[in-house]
Amino acid sequence: MDLDPDDIFKDDEDDPDNDLEKASTKEFVVYLVDASPKMFSTTFQGEDQKDETPFHAAVSCISQSLKTQIINNSNDEVAICFFNTREKKNLQDLNGVFVFNVAEREYLDRPTARLIKEFDRIEELFMKEIGSQYGIMSGSRENSLYNALWAAQALLRKGSAKTADKRILLFTNEDDPFGSITGATKMDMTRTTLQRAKDTQDLGISIELLPLSCPDEEFNVSAFYADLIGLEGDDLALFMPSVGDKLTDMKNQLRKRMFKKRVVRRITFSIVKGLSIELNTYALIRPTVPGTITWLDSITNLPLKTERSFICADTGALVQPTKRFHPYKNKNVKFTTEELSEVKRISTGHLRLLGFKPLSCLKDYHNLRPSTFVFPTDKEVVGSTCIFIALHRSMLRLKRFAVAFYGGSAHPQLVALVAQDEIIAGGVQVEPPGMHMIYLPYSDDIRHIEELHSDITVPTPRATDDQIKKATALMRRIDLKDFSVCQFANPALQRHYAVLQALALEEDEMPEIKDETLPDEEGMARPGVVNALEEFKKSVYGENYNEEDEGHGKASDASKKRKAVAENAVKESAKYDWADLADNGRLKDLTTVELKYYLTAHNLAVGGKKEVLISRILTHMGK
Amino acid sequence: MARNKEALLLLLDVSPSMHTFLPEVEKLCSMLLQKKLIYSKNDEVGIVLFGTEDTNNELTKEVGGYEHVVVLRHIKVVDGDLVEALQQLPRGTVAGDFLDAIVVGMDMLIKKFGSTNKGKKRLCLITSALCPIKDPYEGTKEDQIGTIAEQMSAHGMKLECIVARGRLSGNVDMRIMDENDLLLKLFSTKTTAKTLYVETPTSLLGALRTRSIAPVTIFRGDLELSPKMRIKVWVYKKTAEERFPTLKQYSDQAPPTDKFATHEVKVDFEYKSVEESSKVVPPEQRIKGYRYGPQVIPISSAEWEAVKFKPEKGVKLLGFTDASNVMRHYYMHDVNIFIAEPSNTKAMLAVSALARAMKEMNKVAILRCVWRQGQGSVVIGILTPNVSDKDDIPDSFYFNVLPYAEDVREFQFPSFSNLPASWQPNEEQQEAADNLVKMLDLAPSGSKETLLPDLTPNPVLERFYRHLELKSKHPDAAVPPLDESLKKITEPDPKLLSQNKPIIDAFRRRFELKENPKLKKSTRRLLRERPSGLNEEASMGDGSDGQAIKSIENTSTVGVEKIGDSTPIQDFEAMMSCRDSPEWVGKAINEMKNKIFDLVEDSYEGDNYLKALEYLVALRKGCVLEQEPKQFNDFLHHLYKYCEKHNLNSFCESLASKEIMLINKTEAADSEVTEDEARSLMVKKEPKLE
């Protein structure tokens, strides 16, 4: 059996790539953009209050969305399709429909850097290469909207509706596409188009409308589109106000790698003898890293693979080591891989309940790694959820947490199971119900730093009540009322993504990323805050306090001494005519102590033998 | 190296009151020395015992007194002999006077080092502190402690006392105990000393930091409340996982005669193009690439350096917030501690004021930290107060990293109230759960909290170092079983269980669990941990239940094809007696083996053992009848090994009690096992099974 000896030291749970590979469901999106002349003529008020054409608004929204998507869910597939165009390009050769694409890519495919880059320039080339033209005119039987829906549906034929989430996003500013025609033709065209849309939806494809209304003329959803996307009653009333948010959301999404919900591991939790329930564990909080590094050959830019070989340090022969050793008592004590994993196997691999403690026993320093979330499952053992809910309730009510031993092979460890009640805010689940498994340290992992500098000869300073009161006042001033964990984006990671995008799209400028983590300088400069700070400062530091002078009494003895030595060296060094000594080769007649005067005075290293010192002096003098 | 060299004197109480704890004292101290042997080879250690029958120390010769104190080993550089000496401590017979021991120890340290090595001399006292302390010749005991403490401070010695007392029995003199506690407390007010009380052998094992790591600051500088108000702080790690030691790979290529062979293995990496595997690319020609959609974008490290995020070093306050705004499970890392710059009284006052105000108002602070200049990332974290209740320890803060928006995965879970009614506990069940949570108490009032992380040793490391010591003597030594005192960490305390038996029984009665009948067995077994090498064998036994039932129905015509779950013994016998093909016997034996093995493996606390034993008897009978002793004997050996490995001792015991043993020569001529040997399998295993 080919067992990688390193494997037993690995913690499979911490491997971030595991999650990515398991992502099974994808999203297929067709962006359907109206390109009729109306999209270019009227103005649309963008978020920065600048007037722009609706077409521009739609295109920039899609472009932003693609740039986010390529990082968040790079396995999702997209197609961009214009309708009401002069030229046509689509599988069915339908009039007035143009599918935008770039080389090395199918119509519906994963977004590529090239797609994004060329799409960014679409507005320059649009008129020339694709052209805008009303597709629905009285007199002709052409129905470009019908054609567009049909083309989009054809694009989304790929993949089954079970594994993929299929959507059509429709951008338009024409609320009544058949307004220009009248009579039976209009009826007929409306009917066929709606039927087309219904057929599409029956195939499991959802159609979403993103209307771009003009400032002077509200987009009237009821005119036509309400029927097409199936809006009724309350939804209809709520639809228009929500559109603005939708567009902004699409543009300003955080670049964040999305993870599919996945069970990390299914574990058995044995509660009492003969009663074990099944739990699923999930990683809800894990540090996100900037993606895996693929090593490339810098000349060809082709990916590299790494081959590892083991070489005996004594003979140089290739070996396949099966044993490991630890030096002990001047001997090498050898262990086999099996023995090592045996040493680590101290429990059955299950989670075993040991007892309960009040929540106050869980100290702030009892933490080692991000917690793991556990949720019951009845998949294998029927009745698990019932027991779990009962314990969950009791623990919440009695304010207790469970102590259990989690005997996995990689990290057998004591854990605290802290019950978390469900929290719903604004209709959204903020905290799921379940328990969080917090990994507890062992005594070997805890350091007694507090005692490190304790000194019984001087009394330990303790704040007076007045000082505490001043601190309290300060705290009231600088209160983050609605602070929520994870309200910040990681500036380093966002920067990484931005740089990656700039390089991939060969943008000239490096984008600036706003660092949200910096303190709120404006808020801190408010007089109330400044005063409270000043009061507190005066109370603990006293008047006329200079921070730099304090606390360097004992701690900087060494640096004082160094300073004195340096000063002395400068003085001593001045007594010699170094240039003369060097020219006449008489440096070697001096003692190393004397040589070091020069070196110290000029801030050079003083280590090494005499010859080294001399050559260092000569180098410094430029000789 | 030599600068951090420490001199340690172990003062061990071996008087009768300590006897129950002595096995753990032996383990704790030898672990300490073992780690010194590995990580700080130049440290010096001496051992002094007290409460012994005899007396052997220099002071008694010089000035008299100091009876029942024995210097077991003089101070010397750590070596195997010291470890050896600690593995079997003599049991003393008389009461021990810890004060005498401290004086003897102090005298040894002074004679050896004088006033040099300040701060690196340590006395470690492990005692029950239950025996009376003799009155000094002049003055009071308190005065005597004062003198000793003064001497200790003058010579820069530290004192660490571990007081081990189990549940106190009736015959303890409370007066003496209280006096001793007072005396020990006196030390900590007069010199650098600390006292730790432990109740269980398990916590005794965790009471001493066995590996000394010189603490290093990760940040020294300002905690910036605002640009105008700063506090000088030092930041250290408060918790850091002590990892399993990394073992080097061993090469046995060097000839045995080569005394200077390192036996090390070098790992060589070669980089080859995926497409053209013959060409080797030198490491410096490589460039890092990151995925962007389907493509990989190369970014050289120089390029990266120029554009990457470069925050300024510093720790800045963002604000305070209610402690309830940050839930405990959001803590991302191991813990840091912020202390005021040592000997900077003003900074200490500021820290103390903030910490106490935070605690009073139940607030926490949110900080933005960049520990080092040039670091490529910032962390947002939470600062919580750590208000000290000891006079000589200043107040401080704990710090933990909080997740960024990118680090949180918003998975949705069903509300418990939306789950089907059959999954909701009824009132009686809820009551049973309440009782369990209330009574299975690890921190009962009036008694010490058990399994306190600060006093719980890492059982894996304990086991590894013990195995290392065993192996250094016998290279083939088997992995030692987990100690009883360490089992208290991995398994529930039997005492606690038996105390709460009615509650546990009630809980068990109220809830019913059953395996999901719809689930195929094959999917289930993938999830179980399985010893390597058995996969093949076991997968053969993957008969789904449905098939098995069908086979029973067809018994009349075709005969039994598989061993089902309902009447396995009958099925087995039927298969064994099938005469139409010789394959049946082998198949039957194999299937039965799997069945037994599955039972043992899946058994929880022995609930399947009886069945397994029944089957085993049947298998044995069949093997004797068919003269297949080897099949059975090998399997029994295998089963033994498995049980031993997984601490399923009780199964082996029940084997012995049922007298299921190897098939011997008299039963089957092919067997290589004599009757005596067959019996001895049990006997030989017995002591190991303890």
What does this protein look like?
The complex is a heterodimer of chains A (623) and B (690). By secondary structure, chain A is α+β, with helices and mostly antiparallel strands. Chain A has 4 domains: 25-251, Rossmann fold (3-Layer(aba) Sandwich), CATH 3.40.50.410; 351-445, Ku70, Chain: A, Domain 2; 465-547, Ku70, Chain: A, domain 4 (Orthogonal Bundle); 557-621, no CATH class. Chain A has 19 helices and 22 strands. In chain A, β11 (304-312) and β12 form a beta hairpin. The longest helix of chain A has 20 residues, at 183-202. With 690 residues, chain B is an alpha/beta fold. Chain B folds into 3 domains: 2-205, von Willebrand factor, type A domain (Rossmann fold, 3-Layer(aba) Sandwich); 215-405, Ku70, Chain: A, Domain 2 (Beta Barrel), CATH 2.40.290.10; 537-689, Alpha Horseshoe (Serine Threonine Protein Phosphatase 5, Tetratricopeptide repeat). In chain B, 39% of the residues lie in helices and 18% in strands. Chain B contains 24 helices and 19 strands. In chain B, the strands form 4 sheets. Chain B has a 7-stranded mixed β-barrel with strand order 7-8-15-18-17-16-14. In chain B, strands 3-2-1-4-5-6 form a 6-stranded mixed sheet, with helices on both faces. In chain B, β10 and β11 (280-281) form a beta hairpin. Chain B is globular. The relative contact order of chain B is 0.06. The model of chain B is unreliable at 522-559 and 683-690 (pLDDT under 50). The interface between A and B is large, with 218 and 220 residues. Chain A: Residues 587-621 form the SAP domain. Chain A: Its EC number is 3.6.4.12. Chain A: This is ATP-dependent DNA helicase 2 subunit KU70. Chain A: The active site is at 22 (schiff-base intermediate with dna). Chain A: Residues 1-20 are annotated as: Disordered. Chain B: It catalyses: ATP + H2O = ADP + phosphate + H(+).
